[in-house]
Amino acid sequence: MKNLILILVTLLFVSCETKNTSSVPKEALYDYKVEEKIEKLGIELKTPKAPSGANIVRAVRSGNLLFLSGKGPTKPDGENITGKVGVDLDTQAGYDAARLVAINQLAVLKAELGDLNKVVRFVKVFGMVNATPEFTDHSKVVNGFSDLIIEVFGERGKHARAAVGMVSLPGNIAVEVDVVVEIQD
Questions:
Q1: What superfamily would CATH give domain 30-183?
Q2: β-strands 160-166, 119-130: how paired?
């Protein structure tokens, strides 16, 4: 009897392990072309440059998760939005910088995946705001990133998130965001 119970428990465990736990079907995730939606928003995704000055890569895949390195608000002309939110930039300017970071991360995703319709969902966003000690609206700044991602991906763009203030960021950039995305096989 003990052996039978052990076999049943083992079979139940194996059955649970092999079951697809994702609530999103793998075949057609979207009823629209993500990149066409981005174009309709007036956004052009530039080919991202290789990271410079650091011994890192743009992204690392582990299973169905893609971990994107932190990106800053680099404008199409190659210049960064710099300064501290709360003294050099106001909350709206920080929000706009974070939105630009979202565009830059979308460009990395496109370069890594080839097709943004392969994004199953955004899992985690970690937003860092170069801010004065007195500034407390970090979440309002990082909303610039989140709002655009949700506008593009809908429900699949909703993510867990942290929005924190930093005493400084590389090159005095205003915002840096790293991301974890679930992708199709």
A1: RutC-like (3.30.1330.40)
A2: parallel
Query: What is the model's pTM?
Result: 0.84
Q: Are 37 and 152 in contact (CB under 8 A)?
A: yes
Residue ranges covered by each domain of the chain: 30-183
For 181, other C-beta atoms within 10 Å of its C-beta total 29
Distance separating alpha carbons of residues 151 and 142, to the nearest angstrom: 14
Q: How far apart are alpha carbons 74 and 67 in whole angstroms?
A: 19
Strand ranges (DSSP E) for the chain? 59-62, 65-71, 119-130, 160-166, 175-183
Residues 44-99: pLDDT tens digits? 999 988 777 778 899 999 999 999 999 999 999 999 999 999 999 999 999 999 99
